Amino acid sequence: MTDRVLAIDGGNSKTAVLLVDANGKVLAQVRGPGAPPQTVGMKRGLDVFEGLAREAAAQAGLSPDEPIATHTAAYLAGADLPREEEDLTRAITERGWSPSVVVGNDTFALLRSGTAAGVGVAVVCGAGINAVGVAADGRTHRFPALGPISGDWGGGGHLGEQALWLAVRAEDGRGRPTELLPALLQHYGESSILDVVEKLHFEEVRFDPHVLCPILFEVAAAGDAVAQTVVDRLIEEIVLLSTVSLRKLDLVNDAVDVVLGGGVMTGTGDTVLVPVREQVLRIAPAARVRVVDLPPVVGAALLGLDTIGAAPAAELRLRSAYDDHVPTSLNVAASG
User: Are 49 and 157 found together in one domain?
Assistant: First the structure.
């Protein structure tokens, strides 16, 4: 069988699958709904992954009775603890998509997508928030990323909840006046935020806090001090995740990459990036801090190519398919 990598980026809101050959050529790419096995259940989640993997195999012209790939590189939101990674590795291996399987948290894919060797620190702020650090000698630093019970703060859903919380308290007198109140009233088409709360309570209106997150940033950008406090708190959290990882791995004095990604990061431009960079550089002056919007599934594919021993030229070829997303400061040497 010609060496191929089946890369899976399993996020909370979507699943992306990429099939590439050992030379970095994209053979197929498909997208589907988010199906984190920890949320929807192992069988249902893997059924979604399998459907997309089989669709990719068909796009690539593979026979249904042959393995899809030599190696499966699955980097998934919610694969936060070693036990979860082990369970997922065993379950995916049983599906028979490839002889070898590696499962990891999606932050590793983000880090690899933004670096030439997967060394540095990556912070993802999308539906949730998480970070990982990897040193050149292989040492890693991670956070459990299980939400409030593991000390986490941030992510699009949490920020949206904060926006509603502040609007409610502004209307009932427990909080400071904020333009979040009229902004959310307009969003829901109501004249009172308490009417919104009642409809949410009785499930007459679907509560999707992620859609409120952009409103929070818009109101903050317009000069609202209350909304800005939430943005400032997010900036503080991203800086903490970055710098704690750098300190734990003794990288604060190194010229190391700090890669930021996820929908919240890529959707806010310099609003978050500029202050995060300034504050990280106070602690790690040689760090290179940037947002990377290369699709995370490409990072998963790069990790898969690393695993099968693909030549550096394969990385260049794969990245060239996404030229608009490649950071200008990222250098990958071609050889072989």
Answer: no
